[in-house]
Please model this.
Amino acid sequence: MTDLAELNRVATAMVAPGRGVLAADESAPTILKRFEAIGVENTEDNRRDYRELLFRSKGMANISGVILFDETIRQNAKDGTPLVKIIEAAGSFPGIKVDKGAKPLPFSPGEVVTEGLDGLRERLAEYRSLGAKFCKWRAVIEIGDGIPSYNCIHANAHALARYAALCQDQDLVPIVEPEVLMDGGHSIDRCYEVTEFALKELYRELYYARVKLEGTALKPNMIVPGKKCEEQASVEEVAEKTLRVLKQCVPAAVPGVAFLSGGQSDLDATARLNAMNKIGGVPWKLTFSYSRALQAAPQKAWAGKADNSAAAQAAFAHRAAMNGLASIGKWSPELEKQAA
Ligand code: 5MM
Model:
């Protein structure tokens, strides 16, 4: 029998004030891209060394959970300690990405649906035995000419709901991530409209699948204009429109919302989260579940050299601390400079 109290305890701790989630679940092609950008060879040891340095950084004080990739949840640190144990020792929950990636959606040019439901029950049981307390599944929704279609919104919401129900059946907290991409030249209002559509459909499907919202976390995009849009938005506009869409769509039973960074600059991701928490007045905690906005700085500082490990750990700790402050509305540009 699903232990809803335990699921709620984990989901609530994941969004505890001052803390958020580190998304370190880059799949093989994505970590290759990240390592190429800093001139590092994409070997198993390098992937291990890099992630180990993050998990041993004092920045983990602001990290409530770490999303891992399949390889990482099975990996040991250089001294033989399982990486999962290092995360637990830092007071953080190990989590796992369980989707198998976004694949073309038949008869819907330019659209994708996330796959990975086949065999998921068995994979979840194994991940739980390896120490996972929560999972992540990411749907990808692109905005373009005539897209997204209802078929894309619905297929992805349905898959997210089936995944979430299976997670809870195995006593794992599902993070549901319907990401509306910020690629392209669309306006902030178009992003609002599509995100609203995706979230409404998601919560409808979660209801049909009998998912217990108290034992879930939402990982959405913020409401932002496309990267190529000529009219960019102020921090206040992003915060205000993001809160507005969440209030329209997300039930109060959800303990917390942990945003993805989605290609925003490190500072934008922090400042916008901070602005939302300053406005407040919402039933859920608002925090971060960033990958790029937490890792770009440490990756640059590390550049694959053991001698740079301390500098990389400090860069990670800095971003984790700044986002920790943003999660309680206590960040400021002055603090950012002082602490840097
Ligand atoms: C680490 O990036 C995750 C996706 O990895 P793959 O594309 O390799 O499967 C991604 O889901 C990530 O967890 C979230 O989108 C947050 O990352 P950003 O960089 O958007 O904060």
Notes: Residues 188-208 form the longest helix (21 residues). The domain at 4-339 is CATH 3.20.20.70 (TIM Barrel).
